[in-house]
Amino acid sequence: MTHIRSHLLAAFAVAGLFTSAPAFAQASGCQEGQKIMAERQSLSDQLAKLTQKGKKQLDARSACTIFTKLSANGEVVQKWMTDNKDWCQIPDQAIQGLAQQHKQVQKVRGEACQAAAKVAEMEKRAKQQAQQAQQGGLAGKLGGGLTGTMSIPKGAL
Fold first, then answer.
1. Residue 156: phi, psi to the nearest 5?
2. Could you point out which of 38, 65, 83, 91 has its C-alpha 20 to 30 Å from the C-alpha of 114?
3. Nearest residue to 131 (alpha-carbon basis) of 140, 120, 142
4. For residues 155 and 13, which has the higher predicted lDDT (pLDDT)?
5. Count of alpha carbons within 13 angstroms of residue 83, beta-carbon side
6. Does residue 149 have a pLDDT over 70?
7. What DSSP element (H or E) covers 51?
8. Stretch 122-141: mean pLDDT, rounded?
9. Is the separation of the CB atoms in 36 and 73 below 8 Å?
10. Rg (CA), the chain
11. pLDDT (tens digit, 9 = 90+) per residue, 134-146?
């Protein structure tokens, strides 16, 4: 999990560089880009709260969900920036920075989702073991599988 945390911090650093870029408000058509970037900033804020600056144990499932949304947003932002580069006067550095950030987000998303899958598998196994232990009794002690009733012979022995 600490490996994912270091990637998260790197992703935040890149996000901070990009979000400090000048606003794209030169034309009314550029306001759409501001909405997309506001969504991106909101997702970055959610990630920051998730880690609470490295003091909290990272929840891989939540990180996977947020990074998946951030990755989808990155694709939308890249397309929008490329399409509106000239009209909204978007510098090449901003587009390149976003492309690098998007690659990093995708990498960390893969790691976070892989960790989330492992956590889910471990929880599933633990739940199965708990159910087997609850069944207990003679069947639990002998490895399970014993069912039915046992008849006692009637009459004199």
1. -75, 145
2. 38
3. 140
4. 155
5. 10
6. no
7. helix 31-51
8. 75
9. yes
10. 26
11. 776 445 445 555 5
Confidence of residue 15 (pLDDT cuts 50, 70, 90): very low
Q: Running DSSP on this structure, what letter comes out for residue 56? A: S
Instruction: Identify the residue whose tokens are 């929880």.
Output: 123
**Residue 54 structure tokens:** 């490295």
Q: What is the pLDDT of residues 70-118, one digit of tens each?
A: 999 999 999 999 988 888 888 999 999 999 999 999 999 999 999 999 9
How far is 42 from 81, CA to CA, in rounded Å?
A: 19
Q: What is the pTM of this model?
A: 0.63
Q: Which residues neighbour 30 within 8 Å (Cβ) at sequence distance 6 or greater?
A: 24, 84, 87, 88
Please answer whether residues 47 and 66 qualify as being in contact, where contact means their C-beta atoms are separated by less than 8 angstroms: yes
SS (H, E, C) 73-119: HHHHHHHHHHHCCCCCCCCHHHHHHHHHHHHHHHHHHHHHHHHHHHH
Placement of tokens 């000239």 in the chain:
86
**Residue carrying structure tokens 């509106």:** 84
What are the extents of the domains in the chain? 2-124
